[in-house]
Amino acid sequence: MFPIILGTAKFGTYTNKDDSFAVLDAFLEMGGSRLDTANNYACWHPDGKGDESETVLGQWLQGKDRKRVEVMTKIGAQSVDGFTYDKLDGLSPDNIKRSLDKTLTRLNTDYLDVLYAHVDDLNVPLLDTWKTLSSLVDEGIVRQLGISNYKESRVLELVDVIEQHQLRPFDYAQYRYSIISPNAGADFGPQVILNEHLFGALKRLAVKPEIIGYSPLLDGCYEFSADDLPENYDNLLNCAMLDDIQAQAEGNGSTPSALVLKTIADYGITPVTAASTPERLKSNLQLLLPI
């Protein structure tokens, strides 16, 4: 299987349509097939509404063999007020169905390869959410299910619900992850950090989901000075680790980003990584592809 999933969160906002198409074409030419998006990407852009990524992907898919591409998208994390993550549209059965209809229209497809519950919804019983999602698999509209940003206790509770009611399992579990750890108490809103304890719990599950890590490159910070680390990661240990990563990369003739992605993949986590140009994508993947 191709060692990464292409993240498309910035397509249609930070990355224009033509450049997005170029990256997507390059990804396919390199042998990739799995594309990660969501129905709220990229709502954090100053001009973003949250449907831009799916829209660009849908336009690109019109000229492609749909069977060559695996589309992985997410629902349930649309901001109700359009500005904050204090209240999200959630994972009620009605919202799942409404969101899915809009997503399929934007993507110009009649099925999804993977549908994620984007953020855990504590206001809706897990049984209600998972019955609805399972029914979409039964109907053939969705092929596989995933969870994203579920805390360990809720993952275990969901596994029990799935077993008790013989519902469809989740085949993917996606979390924020990079090889340097954030500061204690760092606030990422609804995003859940994949730490060692959670990783171990996921590995012990009978369902054995593929573990996915998003934001592995921290917006390119591994290429810059330790002085430019994001605030949530700015500490002396991480500064030292960054210097070491950059020295290792220089020693083996790669980029720091390429070394980070290979390290994560070798650890057993599939990175979701983005790029704004084909050249940057190839550079980032230089240690993961055949010579």
From TrEMBL:
Pfam families the UniProt entry points to: Aldo_ket_red
PROSITE patterns assigned: ALDOKETO_REDUCTASE_2
Q: Which residues cross the membrane?
A: none
Q: Which Gene3D superfamilies match?
A: NADP-dependent oxidoreductase domain
NADP-dependent oxidoreductase domain spans which residues? 3-288
**What are the protein's GO molecular function terms?**
oxidoreductase activity
According to its record, what are the GO cellular component terms? cytosol
Protein name, UniProt field? Aldo/keto reductase
Q: Which organism is it from?
A: Enterovibrio norvegicus FF-454
